[in-house]
Amino acid sequence: MSSPEYIIARKTIKAKILKLSEEEEELLRQEYENFQRYLRGEKTVPLYAATKQQADRFLRRINGKLKEMEYPLMLRNDTYSIRIERSPYILKIPIHGVWGGIRVPIKTHEPITGNMRLREAKVIRRGNEWFVHICVEKKVEERIPKNILAIDMGIRWIATTVNSSNPIPKFYGKELRRVKGHFFYLRRSLALKKAYGAIKKIGDRERRIVNDILHKISREIVNEALKTDAMIALGDLKGIRKSDKGNRFNRKLNGFPYYKLSKLIEYKARWLGIKVIKVNERNTSKLCHRCGSKGIRKGSLFECQSCNYTCNADYNGAVNIMKRAIRYMRMAGAGLTQPITR
Ligand SMILES: [Zn+2]
Q1: Cα of 261 from ligand 1 centre, angstroms
Q2: Is the CB of residue 151 less than 8 Å from the CB of residue 160?
Q3: How far is the CA of 251 from the centre of ligand 1 (A)?
């Protein structure tokens, strides 16, 4: 037996700034707006020195390609602090020329605990309100898996899962498909009326609703992994944009938030110490999971002419991902129980 391994898990905790005096508001607004100007090339603007460094790092990361938008004020982890002894928490924000910065009360959507370490924080302005996204990390003991929960991502079902302890697959994404369809229709009718302002507005609403759905799906998947002592196997998503089925198909595919869902599952799982691996997803939708021959897809069905096996195509993909993950884990010496498939 190997000794327990520890992983570093990260997540973002969202918070709202509850109260700002007029003076604090003015200082924060200046720092925030100077941060915008600094990003756009005004390097001599007054801005907290370490925050300038954060801006430079960010510019390097995006290769200087800025979008037409306001960016959050990025605070380096050693320049801000949060007092968590009492509620509300008190956040110290560094401000250029103000010794000790400003201290403001914040309300987080979940508690910050002593075992978390603060990473970068981002101050965001939305209308007249200010928010902070605080990136935190903690050390977690990795659970030893007995089973594998494999996830296949597709168009009909954004996620199809199979668990090596249970032969019945689960399909996720009905609600997502409905929401996407609804907004697609709405956008088209607004475009006919040339109501472009309204299109932008419903775009934001759609994103929020889709995000909620993705959070829900990822939570359910990670909870199942927890309950069944399973690790999670995800496809690496490498093939997903390079489909050769034509533009129409690709447009539809790229509108789906695979990457986002994959990230949500990963961070939620890691936070609970659940192991996540990525497996090469190449041909997992084309090969028969029973005999390994190339089969064909007919609508939502997969058909194998070699062994005359027919099943749901997404299920077939998920089992292939599970089998690859099992091979990979056996090579790494893990003691997994024998999988049950249909
Ligand atoms: Zn077959």
Answers
A1: 30
A2: yes
A3: 31
Ligand 1: distance of its center to the CA of 258 in Å?
28
Q: Tell me the CA–centroid distance for residue 295 and ligand 1, in Å.
A: 7
Distance 288 CA to ligand 1 centre (A): 5
Each residue's pLDDT tens digit in the chain (342 positions)? 567 789 999 999 999 999 999 999 999 999 999 999 999 999 999 999 999 999 999 999 999 999 999 999 999 999 999 999 999 999 999 999 999 999 999 999 999 999 999 999 999 999 999 999 999 999 999 999 999 999 999 888 999 999 999 889 999 999 999 999 999 899 999 999 988 888 888 888 999 999 999 999 999 999 999 999 999 999 887 755 554 455 444 444 556 789 999 999 999 999 999 999 999 988 999 999 999 999 999 889 999 999 999 999 999 999 999 999 998 888 777 677 777 766
- The CA 208 to ligand 1 mean position distance, Å, reads 42
Q: Taking the domains of the chain in order of start, what are their residue ranges?
A: 6-141, 147-331
Long-range residue pairs from 252-255, CB within 8 A, at least 24 positions apart, any chain? 252/155, 253/155, 255/180
Provide the CATH topology of domain 147-331.
Answer: Nucleotidyltransferase; domain 5 (3.30.420)
160: β partners: 152, 171
The rounded Å distance from CA 153 to ligand 1 centre is: 21
Cα(76) to centroid(ligand 1), Å: 54
